[in-house]
Amino acid sequence: MKSIIEMNQLKRFLKDEIQSVDPSIIETLQQYDTIQIDAKMYSTSNIIKRIKEQGCPHCISLKREVTAIKFQLKKLSAPEVPPMNLLLEKFFDERFERTKGREFSRKELFKEVGGNKIKF
After folding, report:
1. Which of 13, 18, 22, 66 is the least buried, fewest Cβ under 10 Å from its Cβ?
2. For the chain, what are the domain ranges?
3. What is the DSSP string of 5-40?
4. pLDDT tens digits, one per residue of 100-120
5. Torsion angle of C-alpha atoms 41, 44, 49, 53, degrees rounded to 10
6. pLDDT tens digits, 13-69
7. Largest CA distance in the chain
8. How many CB atoms lie within 10 A of CB 26?
9. What is the spatial distance between Cα 52 and Cα 34, in angstroms, rounded to a whole number?
10. Rounded distance, CA 28 to CA 43, Å?
11. pTM
């Protein structure tokens, strides 16, 4: 009984009466090379390709949901990232050392940089 309903649905799909067909019919179609509907021969490979390309709303929403769940799973299984302040503090402690006074005068630095200005 189910196969008769599926075939009627497939027939309506091929005649462009409906927009989508149940993808589970692909398993049945893979058993044949061609099928005939109303004296017209259809290649099952083309039908399978068309069914796979269809965009039924239910399938699209399920694909989105699966993608979202995969993303959440990756996010939950990812190692925990320490807070940014701790990372910055570690970076500065390892690469810089504190000094009590300046080595160079700001005025001297300004003169040096000002002399090398490029005019546009």
Report:
1. 66
2. 1-97
3. HHHHHHHHHHTTSSS---GGGHHHHTT-SEEEETTE
4. 777 777 787 777 777 666 554
5. 70
6. 888 888 777 777 888 888 889 988 888 888 989 888 888 887 666 776 788 788 888
7. 95
8. 14
9. 17
10. 13
11. 0.44
